[in-house]
Amino acid sequence: MAEQYLSIKKATEREGSIVSVRGWIHRERGSKKLRFIVLRDVTGIIQCVIEKSIVGEDKFAAIEKLQVEASVSVTGKIKKDERAPGGYEISVTCFEIIGNSDTFPITKDQSAEFLSDMRHLWIRSRRMQAILKIRSTVFGAIHDYYRKLGFYEFQSPIFQATQCEGGSDLFEVKYFDRITYLAQTWQLYAEAGIFSLEKIYCIAPSFRAERSRTTRHLTEYWHAEMEAAWFSFEDMIDNGEGLIKHIVKAVLDNNSEELDLLERDTGKLTPTIEKPFVRMRYDDAINILNERCDMKIKWGKDLRTIEEDKLTRLYDVPIIVTHYPKSVKAFYMQEDSKNPDVVLGCDFLAPEGYGEIIGGSQREADNSSIIRRLKEQGEDPKNYEYYLDTRRYGSVPHSGFGCGVERVITWICGIDNIRDSIPFPRTMLRTRP
Questions:
Q1: Of 99, 129, 146, which marks where a domain is finished?
Q2: 14-50: per-residue pLDDT in tens?
Q3: Three-point CA angle 138, 139, 145, nearest 5°
Q4: How far, in Å, are 40, 138, 140, 318, 393 from residue 274 at the CA level?
Q5: In terms of residue numbers, what domain contains 21?
Q6: pLDDT (tens digit per residue) in 224-237
Q7: What is the pTM (predicted TM-score) of this model?
């Protein structure tokens, strides 16, 4: 007797046996006597051959009416057939319709905007399924990396009373009789948390009200962040490099089928785990861009998408750019003791033009410097008393970073738009489905 409902992948290990599988119709075709149905589940696809003479006229008539995405279960003998989608074929002896499907609105050629409107259905596609599997691996790898290093998982509020990354990027929320904001980052709360748990991390949604329509930006994204007491600037950079290497290795080890389906050239990912990352100061980056890329960038300007694109195409591993001008970075980044015009901050830039995936820094330890920087940015230091208290009572050197998980997924998958790295993207123009 067949084991009840094997996955398609498990069924292919039972060649010559009677198997039962279930899933959704991915493709269908045939004649008045014979139907070919390509069935899909989370593990793969398999061709099912249904003959009228075997299942009976009434059953076959019902099968002829089935459309793409109807859910069914089948039982039959499985055999290897290299001509069949998935390389195997089931000769069906028993067939049950679980759920009928109307005419499926997604056909072969559709615009990106239409697919966004149909996102709740488009995530069924094999392409999106592959990306979402890789996404799951990435999230698991982040947890695995930090737990093995003895970090504690720590959460911060989504409703926050103050800004951290920039007031113009805040989403205001009516909170009873006052205004609060959606979190841009956990950082200010994490800096309080390290005085209890020392080494902490979190994966949580962050929100940026950026009026951007680029292929790199989401208004709601998932943020993998770490903060650690006693960590120097170099410790933090080493930790970030270790994290990215661990993530990429996990995907290469666990998602070869998905990468193949996406036609991702894994040869472009292997240098990341085999070679050290390129490290350079902001000054060096500017010189390289001006001399090797024929650009004219003045010192003091932040690196834009175009500069990051040019720079990352010169190397086959991520680039870590350090010591940015203080004027383009956040108030909490520590000034370099050797040059107060720059901070101990860094950005990790992914290869192939994928841009920033990590931003981090050693945190400023001096309250007078923090207060001065807040005032320079038009902020009232009184709103940051809880943050300033972390420096008043037993402050220690500490560092941390934030990693944009969707940007990492976009790069690893080799896809063109960050919107495809998340099940239901939120952008400046899209809040549904």
A1: 99
A2: 999 999 999 999 999 999 999 999 999 999 999 999 9
A3: 85
A4: 36, 18, 21, 12, 43
A5: 8-99
A6: 999 999 999 999 99
A7: 0.95
